[in-house]
Amino acid sequence: MDRSPTLPGRTHSSSDRVSDHSPDRASISDHASMKLKNQLAILRSIRDDGPITRVDIKGRTRLSWGTVTSSTKELLDRGIITEIGAVTTGVGRRPVELDLNRKANFVLGLQLGALKAHAVLTDVKGVVVDEQEAPVDSRGSAREMLSVLQETGRAVLQRHSVSRTLLAGVGIAAPGAVDFSTGVCLYAPHHPNLKDVPLKRKFEQAFGVPCFVDHDYNCYVLAEQVFGHGKGLDSFICVVVGNGMSAGLVLNGEVHRGADSLAGEFGHTCVDPDGPLCACGNHGCLEALASGSAIAAVAQRETADNPQSAILSIARGDHNRITAETVAQAARQGDRLAREIYSRMGTVLGVGISNLINTINPQSIILGGRVSRAADLFLPACMEIVRKRGWYASTKEVKVSRLDRGEALGAAALVLQQIFTTGQIVRRGASRRPRSGRAGERKASAPRKVAAASADRERRGRAPAKRPAAASAARTTSPGAPRRARNA
């Protein structure tokens, strides 16, 4: 049985256990709202426990049998869920089970990094189908960068023949300051030409589906909550160390974005007022002392006085080719300078993480980003400071992320979150609901009656009877009838 990653709210809480209103006690708008709420509760139940029978859905959601029957029928008609056929066993036929339709409602997650654009395609359960990356010039124009990002996403979609009607939405992990409510990238220090760019609007126009935009570190922490070490935690922080540095926060089970959607700029907290100049324009930021670009800058400067260092030989004698990965490679070869650079970086990072622990008191700190792959080189020095400076009995757990493409995965999770909390695909599905003529409706009447009888037997725990031949013939010869009508 497939157990796919689930989104926050994966347990069946009181919000999933809803009571349906009857039309005579509510206005039309209230009835529509309650109907959507019921369908979302059913979808979450199927997402978390599918394949699952209608009887089990009723037990988990506490909805009435009539609501479960009518809602699942409508979700089947729209192609949002699918049936897993009855199986004959030694004691009869197992009831029909329901699962999410993984052949529709795909999700595209995109990330614009400092060096590359990433695309991840997942199914509606969050299982990765494919991914792709492409180099990007962070100093190029906004139009050039967005073109690369769009083409990277389109390449993945085309490879799997995912048309617009099969795509539920696009999520974008954007750099810099992002207005979550409008989907505008306001400012990005490492992408100087990406200023006041309406990413949401541009990508909705390009792909023809809803688009959701968040800061890349918020996407990363959401990915950890859904796919990684953050599962089951109510309070944790994901420190992302790449070319820059930032931190995504989950507090009380929710991503914390702050009053202006600008929380998490951990890399721009000051640890040395007289320190080096940061890309943001200030001096002594943590990012300027302990990020990937900081490691490279220190190595470029210090190899001038240490020409025998393995760092320089790996870079083929060119100081400008030195990167954080170059330094890590030299350190693993035993180069003394390289190991010192990473140790110093770990000490500074430890000061910053200690400040987070003392301020937030999270259950865990998770290190992500490409520099975290060299955690064996800096984590000992980092943890020494954390243990020394962390307040009293505060939890001082620091883990290294296991995720690749954490930001792009989180961008996909952003869309999945919308699907199961706001009814993104349920609302879209209504506009694409199959329609049939009166003849088709008449031909479909027999299988609908059989479906209703089958659901009623399932409710009473009896094995379904064999389908009448006439009903089977009606289904076979009625291409215009709703394809899911045979089971309510």
Helix content: 40-55%
Structural class: alpha+beta
Strand content: 15-25%
How many helices in DSSP terms? Answer: 16
Radius of gyration: 27 Å
Subunit arrangement of the protein: single chain
- What name goes with the CATH superfamily of the largest domain? ATPase, nucleotide binding domain
Count of individual domains: 4
What is the C-level CATH assignment of the largest domain? Alpha Beta
List the helices and strands and how they pair.
Elements: H1 28-49, E1 52-53, H2 54-61, H3 65-77, E2 81-84, E3 87-89, E4 92-94, E5 97-100, E6 106-112, E7 116-122, E8 128-135, H4 142-159, E9 167-174, E10 177-179, E11 184-187, E12 197-198, H5 199-207, E13 211-215, H6 216-227, E14 236-241, E15 245-251, E16 254-256, H7 287-290, H8 292-302, H9 310-314, H10 324-332, H11 336-360, E17 364-368, H12 375-389, E18 398-400, H13 406-421, H14 424-431, H15 438-460, H16 469-476
Parallel strand pairs: 6-9, 9-13, 14-17, 17-18
Antiparallel strand pairs: 1-5, 2-5, 3-4, 6-7, 7-8, 10-11, 11-12, 14-15, 15-16
What's this, in brief?
This protein is α+β, with helices and mostly antiparallel strands. It has helices spanning 28-49, 54-61, 65-77, 142-159, 199-207, 216-227, 287-290, 292-302, 310-314, 324-332, 336-360, 375-389, 406-421, 424-431, 438-460, 469-476, and strands at residues 52-53, 81-84, 87-89, 92-94, 97-100, 106-112, 116-122, 128-135, 167-174, 177-179, 184-187, 197-198, 211-215, 236-241, 245-251, 254-256, 364-368, 398-400. It has a 5-stranded mixed β-sheet, with helices on both faces. The protein has a 5-stranded mixed β-sheet with strand order 16-15-14-17-18, sandwiched between helices.
